[in-house]
Design brief:
heterodimer; A: MetI-like fold; elongated; B: four-stranded antiparallel sheet
Chain lengths: ~280, ~240
């Protein structure tokens, strides 16, 4: 089976990697749903248990199953990441297209906003916005969405500008094609993959920043089993030797973030004609 | 007739005029060569004639009317670098189909294999891609073809075979051709007449027939029998003080 896997061509392997990542994410959602209330209920006789066969991530000081709590935390992280990254990428798409097509003034304004957004330290901006919006999931989503659009905006703006001045678009017009036809057949196939890959690569940022905000106490309320909350709580028990409280959720967070990165890069490879057939 | 009247162009107000008061006429079926030093605006002139750039002054007319803003332009330009003239995300078949269904006989004459049509531009060589662009430019409604160093990246054999096909088509469809090239031997061989604008200042006498080395003249004699076998000379006005 292993040799079989190596024989497969790169395209099939890329597809399998993408499929595996999607499977992992749906597994997180399914697991969090199947565990139901189990992560929240205290079970005092079983408290402070190290990881074992029954409870792979151990239990905390109230006897709550850490595996269930981690799954739930990841699910919340993914939901926040999805909402924030989608908002952010949509803002980037609108701003990028506007800057590239609506004249010099709009371009100057959008570019200036991008520069301001990129020059401000991310975490400071995040804390500020999240705090101003009253914290919670809403605050985290707004903060992450409002601070992550500049990079993708620049990519989309540059892409559209380059396309608009390219010879083959001008040629298309001389062949009698309308602006709508050019937008549909020339621009869209270039911008859509950039948007999709940009969206996927925004996920890791959004998830990490959401967890970071919560860890610092500016995000979700303390009783939500979010990864940031779990990590913040574990800090108090690390000195008593309960290492698994921090290691297990932290590791799963890093793994899911890496999975998104892998997913984004593989989708990009699949959408680019230069690597499509390798 | 494709006609440039008092044409002038400059890239932006702070630049000087590339050319000024330029007149050019190409009648259907006529093959005109255009030579001149690099960087003097040969390609820019081609872009003006095909409607890619708006003239700074003067006008470009086809049969007495300005170039159409929309619809298939009767003047088509072939670029020097075909890889920039095609969408890198499209297969060759889609690239051809943008100008309407390609003519099967034309594909055969230019030696375009059916298997090429399923490939992406980066999977084709420069010569193969230029032939795809040529078929696209030779759509039925094209009446004037401007070839900007069309074959300069090709080897001599391919060059010869492509030009033979293009000349056949130009003859049968009464196309007017403007051939831009540094290769004066090629121009002498192909064209009814050669114009050379864009001489370095005030040296208009250094134009093609006089400058042509004797061995070129021997190998590719200019067809004196053709009614258009003459050379227009043109000197740029002195630069404004």
């Amino acid at each position: 089976m292993m040799t079989n896997f190596l024989v497969l061509d790169l395209r099939t392997r890329t597809m399998m990697v993408i499929f595996g990542c999607l499977l992992l994410f749906s597994g997180i959602f399914l697991g969090a749903w199947l565990y139901g209330e189990q992560g929240q209920t205290t079970n005092l006789p079983l408290r402070k248990l190290p990881p074992g066969w029954d409870r792979p991530f151990g239990t905390d000081w109230l006897g709550r199953d850490m595996f269930a709590r981690t799954l739930k935390g990841l699910r919340i992280s993914l939901e926040i990441g999805l909402a924030a990254a989608t908002c952010s990428a949509s803002i980037a798409l609108v701003f990028g297209l506007a800057a590239a097509t609506m004249g010099r003034l709009v371009d100057v304004v959008v570019t200036w906003l991008c520069d301001v957004g990129m020059a401000t330290p991310h975490l400071v901006l995040l804390i500020l916005i999240s705090f101003a919006c009253g914290g919670g999931a809403k605050g985290v989503i707004i903060a992450v969405a409002a601070s992550h659009w500049p990079a993708l905006t620049r990519v989309i703006r540059a892409e559209v500008m380059q396309l608009r001045t390219s010879d083959y678009i001008k040629l298309s017009r001389r062949l009698g094609r309308s602006s709508a036809w050019i937008a549909r057949h020339h621009l869209l196939p270039h911008v859509a993959p950039q948007f999709l890959v940009g969206l996927l690569l925004l996920f890791p940022h959004a998830i990490l920043h959401a967890a970071g905000l919560t860890f610092l106490g500016f995000g979700m309320s303390p009783h939500t089993p979010e990864i940031g909350t779990l990590l913040a709580e574990s800090m108090r028990y690390l000195s008593t030797g309960m290492w698994w409280l921090a290691v297990a959720p932290g590791l799963t967070l890093v793994l899911s973030v890496m999975a998104f990165d892998v997913l984004g890069n593989n989708v990009r490879a699949l959408l680019d004609p230069k690597t499509l057939r390798e | 007739m494709l006609e440039a009247r008092n044409l002038a162009y400059r890239y932006g107000k702070q630049h000087s005029w590339l050319f000024n008061d330029l007149d050019l006429r190409i009648t259907p079926g006529e093959i005109v060569g255009l030579s001149g030093p690099s960087g003097r605006g040969k390609s820019t002139l081609a872009k003006l004639l095909a409607g890619y750039l708006p003239p700074g002054r003067g006008s470009v007319m086809v049969d007495g009317r300005p170039l159409p803003e929309s619809g298939h332009c009767p003047v088509q330009l072939l670029f020097q670098h075909p890889e920039l003239a095609v969408n890198p995300r499209w297969k060759a078949g889609d690239i051809l189909a943008e100008a309407g269904p390609p003519d099967a006989a034309l594909l055969r004459d230019l030696g375009i294999e059916p298997s090429w049509l399923a490939r992406y531009p980066h999977e084709l060589s420069g010569g193969e891609l230029q032939r795809i662009c040529l078929v696209r430019a030779l759509a039925p409604r094209t009446r004037y073809l401007l070839c900007d160093e069309m074959t300069s990246m090709l080897d001599a054999l391919t060059q010869a075979s492509i030009w033979r096909t293009v000349l056949d088509i130009a003859r049968s469809r009464e196309l007017g051709l403007l051939v831009i090239s540094h290769d004066q031997a090629l121009l002498g061989k192909l064209c009814h007449r050669t114009v050379c604008y864009f001489q370095s200042d005030h040296r208009s006498s250094a134009c093609f027939p006089a400058a042509k080395p004797s061995f070129v003249r021997k190998a590719f004699p200019v067809r004196r029998d053709s009614p258009a076998a003459r050379t227009d000379t043109w000197a740029p006005p002195p630069p404004p003080a």
